[in-house]
Amino acid sequence: MPLGLSEEELDLIDDMVAARRTVKRGSLLFRNGEKFTSLYAIRTGFFKTCVASEDGRDQVTGFQMAGEVVGLDGIVNDYHTCDAVALEDAEVCVMPFDRIEELSRAVNSLQRHVHKIMSREIVREHGVMLLLGSMRAEERLATFLLNLVQRLHARGFSQSELILRMTREEIGSFLGLKLETVSRTFSRFAEEGIVEVKQRHVRILNTDALKDIVNPKSGAGTA
Amino acid sequence: MPLGLSEEELDLIDDMVAARRTVKRGSLLFRNGEKFTSLYAIRTGFFKTCVASEDGRDQVTGFQMAGEVVGLDGIVNDYHTCDAVALEDAEVCVMPFDRIEELSRAVNSLQRHVHKIMSREIVREHGVMLLLGSMRAEERLATFLLNLVQRLHARGFSQSELILRMTREEIGSFLGLKLETVSRTFSRFAEEGIVEVKQRHVRILNTDALKDIVNPKSGAGTA
DNA sequence: CGTAATGTTGAGCGCATTCAAGCCGGGTGG
DNA sequence: CCACCCGGCTTGAATGCGCTCAACATTACG
User: Fold this and answer.
1) B75 with B123: CB under 8 angstroms?
2) What is the pTM of this model?
3) Distance B152 CA to D1 C1' (A)
């Protein structure tokens, strides 16, 4: 899924994949407490991962789409510490971690690749921490939309139109907001002509305005 | 520093370490934008890592102490994306990442070890996301104190007494609070007899009460 | 077609923030 | 040695953003 792989490297990936697995919308790929065996590369579909505090509250830690890898949390303790839930019917490649380690000992580029995937996740989470720690509701939602649409665009989808696979509550959990706040903020964006929102269908009318909310530049206005 | 290493594995670690480096209090081990070459194992001292948004705000992403590793953020793009600042005079082992990859291809246990370190960081950040996304000020500070004292205790320090190496502002940045809120919350804990706070010196008088704030159990009270 | 899940909107409230003033402690230089 | 200064910390008062609670609208789905 990442670019720049030679043919032999693609063969390698085939070697890693023990099986394919389909996950129905609403069901779990793995759950908190489950034994860790494999990483999963998403082929199609859309997931959320979430952790739970002891007293029931839970926090969505990310949304994953085709080409992304889930399951890294399980490596430390041989048990998963979060749930991975399919938000639409999905198909994943099951890659047993033993096999990954074995092959990545033999193939430098694969080893490097695995390291980068883990580091990328760490850096992504830094960004989420910045969002949760210091942004206001509008900034959070704008950041979220820009990030989603950018990742979709990289997969050949529209730059300006997207369908949300998750509920307002799930967006809120991820962004550290209540669902009502998410809804209200969407409405405010719509009033200002920045987006068009019809339930889960979102059309971005003014990307610059969104960027300006995230990173207000003195001069820039609503071009 | 982690337990259960054989003699030969310890030799390996020696092989990885290119040099030691001392970092004076207040100065940077590495900074955002700097080329990535190495991971750093902290021998002594105390660090914070922080990321900055484009418009100046910054977010402390973690505090690291002896035995912990910093620099993982640099692997993805070959550049660091955060700053690592020494909060007291420190000494680190410089471990060139090329060397780490080379050796971990040869030694299974080292490879596994590297993977676990990265996965542990991912899981740690999940916990921080839960904190930032869903906890109130008191819960955040209580969680923070319990985590700090637990890590210190694992290093042979007191279970109930600690010296904060960071300012209220840095604590606040990490916890997604303003420094005044941190200060007020400390005072509230002190009023309630849960802790004794004198500037950076903190003595925990009632660990159970702290745990109860983090994870309120119906029956449990201020034993 | 009816029911439950999801989403929107309003009113009032509360927690954390903002702004501001004062305190404490440590280091420096007169 | 003491006065001063400055960064860090504490505390107070007022504000406001996001939350809570509640009613209603809309959509999905059996």
Assistant:
1) no
2) 0.94
3) 40
- Kindly indicate whether the domain formed by A11-131 is annotated with CATH number 2.60.120.10: yes
**pLDDT at A124 > cutoff 50:** yes
- Domain B136-214's class? mainly alpha
Q: For the residues B123-129, what does the mean pLDDT come to?
A: 98
- Asked if A11-131 and A136-214 have one fold, the answer is no
* pLDDT single digits (tens) B29-52: 999 999 999 999 999 999 999 999
pLDDT tens-digit readout, A156-198: 999 999 999 999 999 999 999 999 999 999 999 999 999 999 9
HEC sequence for B112-172: HHHHHHHHHHHHHHHHHHHHHHHCCHHHHHHHHHHHHHHHHHHCCCCCCEEECCCCHHHHH
CA B130/CA B157 separation, integer angstroms: 27
Instruction: Report how far apart, in Å, the C-alpha atoms of A12 and of each of A6, A54, A111, A209 are.
Output: 10, 40, 12, 44
Q: B203 φ, ψ to 5°?
A: -120, 125
Q: Where are the domains of chain A?
A: 11-131, 136-214
**Where on strand D do bases come within 7 A of a protein Cβ?**
8-13, 17-22, 26-28
Interchain CB distance below 8 Å, A215 and B54: yes
Report the distance from CA of residue B79 to the C1' of nucleotide D26 in Å, as an integer: 48
